[in-house]
Amino acid sequence: MLSLNSREYFEKELRERRQRVLDYLFQQGPMANIAPPHLSQAVNSYLMRGGKCLRSFVLLLSCGAMGGDEQRAIPAGAAIELYHTWTLVHDDIIDRDDTRRGSKTIHREFEDKALTELVYQAEEARHYGLSLAIMAGDAQHAGAISLLTGLYTRFQVSPELVINLVRELETEVINTLLEGETLDVQYACQAIEDMEEDLILDMLWKKTGKLYEYSAKAGGLIALNHYDPADKRVQALASFASKCGLAFQLQDDILGIVGNVATLGKPVWSDLLEGKKTLVTYRVFQQAGRDDRKRFLRILGNKNASREELQALTDFIIASGSIAYAQEIARAYINEALQQLEFLPPSHHRDLLCLWAESTLERQS
């Protein structure tokens, strides 16, 4: 558990790097040239609301932990933040979520604008909101690749390395992310008794762990300034972030059931309403008796479930020990991740990576 002093120190270091990444993104990024105004607003909406920039934080720290200059890695940090943002925009459409970071999701925000500013009818307004969100995500995706080229054009990072970072992001990483998202959608419609814990963990890693893994790997390679993915330190950083990313997603799924809406900035219970197969829901089903399983299945995936039914299900999930079980699994991944940092020399950056790993288990948003 983080002490008060270490938590304050970590938050200070995180804020400082977040600001540097966002400053670069808004000053050097490609978003300023996007038109018309609605598309420009949609592209920038989530970025203007904040966000912790954790993936770029990991990238910068990984660069520093390898003895590199964090400043040279800033374009990659900005690219990762913008890349992660497009996945959120599209994920919100897929999950049919209404809020993100305390405000309306992009597709809901621009559905409302279509109703009030363009005076569209309801069905056309809904289509407009979805269309703007899809196009905003596409623009963010393209902008992220443009930002990556700044590694060479602004900081003279090896062009061979830049090409390989782009290649990995646009082949290996994106394919893994999309596979994880597709499995998430498919599993929501699959009978929970047909699921397996390993399948769920694999899907969760593909959705979240892969991009964290890439972030750490990219930071380490930028420090080397040449493409050497076989470097033991780079591999250790990638493995560290990969395991932390899975723990992060497990905590995210926990908060999706028992989190505070005001703190979380997005709805709770949406995973239950969508019938998502998380480690928590799978564990509940495995532990429940026949009658409890029937009650559980009547609510899981029932989009018309009442607030009272969802609260009763939440109470049952907690009492079953399934939240505690997921927390134990997340802790095991963090412990394994921390062992990977032993391949790196002691440093300020390595200490911050340790604090970040611990913080994934304590976060409430």
Describe this structure in words.
The chain has 365 residues and is mostly helical. The protein contains 16 helices and two strands. The chain is 76% helix and 1% strand. A two-stranded antiparallel ribbon has the order 1-2. A hairpin with a 2-residue loop joins strand 1 and strand 2. The longest helix is centred in the middle third of the chain and has 34 residues, at 122-155. The model has no long low-confidence stretch (mean pLDDT 94).
In short:
The chain is built from 16 helices and two strands. The chain has 365 residues and is mainly α.
Label this structure with key terms.
365 residues, mainly alpha, two-stranded antiparallel sheet, 2 strands
Number of extended strands: 2
Strand arrangement in the largest pleated sheet:
1-2
Overall mean pLDDT score?
A: 94
Looking at this structure, what is the CATH superfamily?
Answer: Farnesyl Diphosphate Synthase
Biggest sheet statistics? 2 strands, antiparallel
Q: How much is the radius of gyration in Å?
A: 21 Å
CATH fold-level label: Farnesyl Diphosphate Synthase
Oligomer: single chain
CATH architecture: Orthogonal Bundle
What are the low-pLDDT stretches, counting only 5+ consecutive residues below 50? Answer: none
Number of domains: 1
SSE topology:
Layout: H1 4-28, H2 37-49, H3 54-65, H4 70-95, E1 99-100, E2 103-104, H5 106-116, H6 122-155, H7 159-188, H8 197-224, H9 232-258, H10 261-264, H11 270-274, H12 279-287, H13 290-299, H14 307-319, H15 322-340, H16 348-359
Antiparallel strand pairs: 1-2
Helix pairs in contact: 1-3, 1-4, 1-16, 2-6, 3-4, 3-8, 3-16, 4-6, 4-8, 5-6, 6-7, 7-8, 8-9, 9-15, 12-15
